[in-house]
Design goal:
The complex is a heterodimer of chains A (199) and B (342).
Chain A (H helix, E strand, L loop, with lengths): L1 H18 L12 H8 L4 E2 L2 E4 L2 H11 L9 E9 L2 E12 L4 E10 L4 E10 L5 H4 L2 H4 L25 H34 L1
Helix pairs in contact in A: 3-6
Chain B lengths: L2 H25 L4 E17 L2 E18 L4 E10 L6 H7 L3 E6 L6 E8 L19 H4 L4 E11 L2 E8 L14 E12 L2 E16 L14 E16 L2 E12 L6 E14 L2 E12 L3 E12 L7 E14 L3 E14 L1
Antiparallel strand pairs in B: 1-2, 1-16, 2-3, 3-4, 4-5, 5-6, 6-7, 7-8, 8-9, 9-10, 10-11, 11-12, 12-13, 13-14, 14-15, 15-16
The chains are: A alpha+beta (199), B mainly beta (342).
Chain lengths: 199, 342
């Protein structure tokens, strides 16, 4: 039985390495219906999983100024629709706060030259300042921000509470990372389309 | 042809037509598919009064296939493959064997689930126990965790709901009777200061595997009897800052509603000292009138490496007590498990 088990495990890893299948970071979108109704008043959404290539990883990490987590090899995008028109995109991220994982939901609008934040919410966390972290006073600061803005807590952004700087920064980092990732996936695609049109 | 066979044929015919329709949608170019592989490996090191042992508690690959249309998800299929691990047949079915299709009907509408899935009873609905050393009382209160069936789930505002009608025989087993297990749960969620609470109310009725407390240690051999079980449960999950509390109370009857009372309880507390270290304590029990009780207490730690959400190391001390007319046993173990999800 042990031999079978080991064979399975080695086969599985072999399969993963040979096919280059993405190891996904593990953040689900827990309440899409409620979020979509609140944020966009939309009709539908769909799930798009995108694998990060090595070239993309380098580009994203350069812009971030630090490495992606080892398990961030795939990102999830949830385009949101009113009728047949896409009116926004939702993304999720699981990052480490002071006491555990903070699951952040970021809703963006594509302006044509990059994504801007429509709303940020937290779907699960284990922080002491839970209510402050989820307050409009803290999360409302992110509205309208782009990947080019300053996300440092204590500078342009205020912490949720004075004793929650670390967890506030974890949320800010998640929002910035998702904006950079979105722009890399969809901004570059836009540029390619524009280039083709010009040709 | 018996009624059961006719009914089963109809269900299979319906499923086949549904899958064919989805295949037509995909091949027509109206819908797109995406397949992902996730999974996990859970090796364990265990010490008990008989010595130490190293075993592979679990190794699985979860294949998820999504079919999406232009503006919405059409279907998601999940198929859990697992290694022939060092666990006995019946108890393995507690943890592995999920295989189902989710069909979302649209925004603010329920999602239909068809296949083998976790029964949405009590904490099981939200708490994925299959990667944990600590387990809730489902093996004693229900006799199974994963069961083939059909149901729906969804959310109205902050309240989740789920309904599941299943065979009551566990995964990969033919239905051995005409009786179906019916399970329902509603669970509102709300924020109270710095605490987020989910309160669940569940009900279940149907014929399920049955063991007397005297024979519960032979559970791994599989069920020898099936009995009608009626169960009601209240559960609560509270994330209160770094503390997570899970509580469940189960009350029920076996065989008939006038039969002997059974009850179970489960309380688990976790406290994160920092993002990479969490302490855990748990106490649970299952009592059957005129038979006795099975109680269990656990304590330990969970380590989460920084910058990774897919790895943890659990170290848990477990103490169990069984007390019936014919036996009085107490046993312990210390288990270390590395959980690697990908």
């Amino acid at each position: 039985m042990l031999r079978h088990s080991l064979r399975f495990v080695f086969s599985l890893f072999g399969l993963l390495f040979l096919t280059g299948i993405a190891l996904a970071s593990l953040c689900v979108w827990r309440s899409p219906d409620e979020d979509i109704a609140e944020i966009y008043k939309a009709d539908s959404y769909k799930t798009v999983f995108q694998d990060v290539t090595d070239v993309q990883r380098q580009r994203i990490e350069q812009q971030l100024g630090y490495s992606l987590d080892p398990d961030e090899t795939q990102f999830k995008f949830f385009p949101v629709y009113k009728g047949e028109n896409q009116i926004g995109t939702v993304m999720t991220h699981a990052g480490k706060g002071q006491f555990g994982v903070i699951e952040v939901v970021v809703a963006v609008i594509d302006t044509g030259s990059g994504a801007i934040v429509k709303r940020v919410s937290i779907q699960r966390d284990r922080e002491k300042a839970k209510a402050a972290l989820r307050s409009l006073k803290f999360l409302g600061q992110f509205k309208g921000m782009t990947a080019m803005d300053n996300f440092t807590i204590g500078e342009d952004l205020k912490p949720a509470r004075n004793d929650a700087v670390k967890s506030s920064q974890a949320v800010a980092n998640a929002v910035r990372k998702l904006l950079i990732v979105y722009d890399d996936f969809y901004g570059l695609k836009r540029a390619e389309i524009k280039e083709k049109e010009n040709k | 042809m018996s009624k059961i066979t006719k009914r089963t044929d109809s269900v299979y015919l319906g499923l086949t037509l549904l899958l064919l329709s989805l295949a037509v949608l995909v091949s027509s170019g109206w819908a797109a598919t995406k397949v992902d592989i996730n999974g996990g490996v859970f090796p364990q090191l265990k010490f008990d009064k008989e010595g130490s042992s190293f075993n592979l508690m679990g190794a699985e690959a979860d294949i998820t296939a999504r079919i999406t249309g232009k503006t919405r998800d059409i279907a998601t299929g999940l198929f859990q493959l697992w290694a022939p691990i060092s666990m006995q047949d019946w108890t393995m079915g507690f943890h592995f064997g999920q295989a189902y299709v989710l069909l979302p009907l649209g925004l603010r509408l329920p999602t239909i689930r068809i296949g083998q899935a976790v029964i949405p009873f009590g904490l099981l609905a939200d708490y994925d126990t299959h990667t944990q050393i600590v387990q809730t009382t489902y093996s004693r209160t229900l006799g199974l965790r994963i069961d083939p069936g059909v149901g729906f789930q969804g959310q109205i505002g902050k309240t989740q709901y789920a309904f599941w009608m299943s065979n009551g025989n566990g995964p990969y087993a033919l239905d051995n009777n005409q009786n179906k297990v019916v399970t329902g749960r509603v669970a509102p969620k709300f924020l109270l200061g710095d605490a987020e609470l989910t309160l669940g109310l569940s009900g279940l009725a149907g014929e399920l595997p049955y063991w007397r407390l005297d024979s519960i240690m032979q559970m791994m051999d599989g069920p020898h009897f099936y009995r009608m079980k009626y169960r009601a449960a209240l559960d609560n999950t509270t994330d209160w800052g770094p503390a997570t509390i899970r509580i469940e109370g189960v009350l029920g009857k076996d065989s008939v509603l006038s039969g002997p009372l059974v009850y179970g309880y489960y309380a688990e507390g976790r406290y994160a000292f920092m993002s990479w270290l969490e302490a855990l304590v748990k106490y649970d029990g299952y009592h059957v009138t005129e038979q006795g009780s099975y109680r269990s207490a656990d304590a330990g730690f969970v380590f989460y490496p920084p910058n990774l959400t897919s790895l943890d190391l659990q170290v848990i001390f477990q103490q169990d007590w069984i007390k019936t007319e014919n036996m009085k046993e107490r046993f312990w173990n210390v288990t270390t498990q590395l959980t690697f999800r990908f």
